[in-house]
Amino acid sequence: MLDPFRHGSQPKTPGRREIDRVLKKVQEGVEVFDSIWNKVYFTENANQKEKFEADLKKEIEKLQRYRDQIKTWIQSSEIKDKKKLVPLMSSLSWMLARLLNEK
């Protein structure tokens, strides 16, 4: 049986390990994002709030880069098994859109 994540002659095609690594980074990033989000909205100290907002912005930028990478993989014909990618892409897009609507 052919492995949908197997490297061909094209080095840009991600392997299963790379995809799993990015998926894990996204999950960790979402947890960090949620933690910082709570700190931003539950702190009363203005200096801390500014610091947390800067941290939140950095985390958002990371998540956006991961979202763009996942989007590229979803559009790629080289990746056959997209079961993990599509729901993750949807949830990341929803989370980032929600954030932009709350600002």
TrEMBL record:
One of its GO terms (cellular component) is nucleus. Residues 17-87 form the CCR4-Not complex component Not N-terminal domain. InterPro entries: Not2/3/5, Not_N. One of its GO terms (biological process) is regulation of DNA-templated transcription. Its main location: cytoplasm. The keyword Nucleus applies. It comes from the Eukaryota. Belongs to the CNOT2/3/5 family. This is CCR4-Not complex component Not N-terminal domain-containing protein. It comes from Dioscorea zingiberensis.
